[in-house]
Please model this.
Amino acid sequence: MKKILLPSLVTFFLLCNISLAQEGAEINGELIIYFINGPENYNRTLKIQAFGTVWDQFHNVTTNYQGGTKTITENTPSNRHQSDLDWSNNENYPVLSLGLYEISIWGGSSKHAWFFIDYRTSHLPEAAGLPHGIDVVLYYDVTNQSFEFIQPNLGVLNNGDYYPIWEIKELVELETDALQNYWGNALTIIPQYNIYEEYYEPLLIWGPYNGFQPQGYKVYWRYNSSGSYYLLQTVSSGTYQYLHQSVPIGKGGSYLEYKIQAYNNQSTSSFTNIASINSSQIFMDKKPVKAENKIYEFSLPQNYPNPFNPTTTIKYSVPEEQFVSIKLYNSLGQEIVAIVEGVKQAGFYQIKFDASYLPSGIYFCNMKSRNIFNAQKMILQK
Model:
């Protein structure tokens, strides 16, 4: 697969060769990171860490992935280097197994930038028909300490963002049926940063259950490994994520366990594996103790999830008592609905927005108060 390299920009080149079998043919794709805008004599460490179970190119559960680190010391920013991370022990280039990974850049003991990329799908061979196969190309800007998608052109990544490969490369859908014992290894937890509360919350990620046609998925949890599991939330079929809000990840509190079950009108599935984390809060009667006296700002962060179908959570905050208007517009600039219209006290708010009555498309959520304006693009995919 031909690459266009930019020697004047490139200071580091990470090549992760993904080998997948389809009808006897090998299909290759690469995760490539170019380091740019680095001063002379800089030193950074690249880390790649798998979260949860990984599968090999033949869709079997594998244990030969160890993760890896690469220290980059650069004197001449125009030079290009190729990583020799050995993930498979028997390949000239590292083989990226089918799993969920955190990609992070460190300077000493400081974590400068990171994101999550999810390759847990047996559907990847279809991507070979796309213009660039299953390649994903990024820049890492050393000076600004940020990642940016180049191929595809998705812009700057926020720290902690989660990117499924089937959405990045616009595959038809997520499929897991060929992955060995997928449902028994489906559930994974990654930390999601809450910019308002300034702590990490658990983002639960799984995939489709293939035993029957699910109507939806039930999220169960318990704390401190005692007693029965409680039903935490029910999500619609096609939704494979759940953010457990107001639950800070940390030490000194409760030990939390989660599992997922698919259901329809006739039956329920077996449970996924149990995924667990530690929370810094102590849970009693399933209610956490929350911190008070927070200082808020005028803000409208990105809705979650996005894209969404048909519901999404809209969060916003105001620093003092004021009139707030939040309205939804279509791509033609026509007002669709007023989501919030009224006086709000200083604080953080969230709303579950249901777009089941709207067609698929791009919408804009605009927040206005006095002379301050904020907006976010929302994508409804049905």
Remarks:
- The radius of gyration is 22 Å.
- The helical segments are 165-168.
- The chain is about 0% helix and 45% strand.
- The first strand starts at residue 16 and ends at 22.
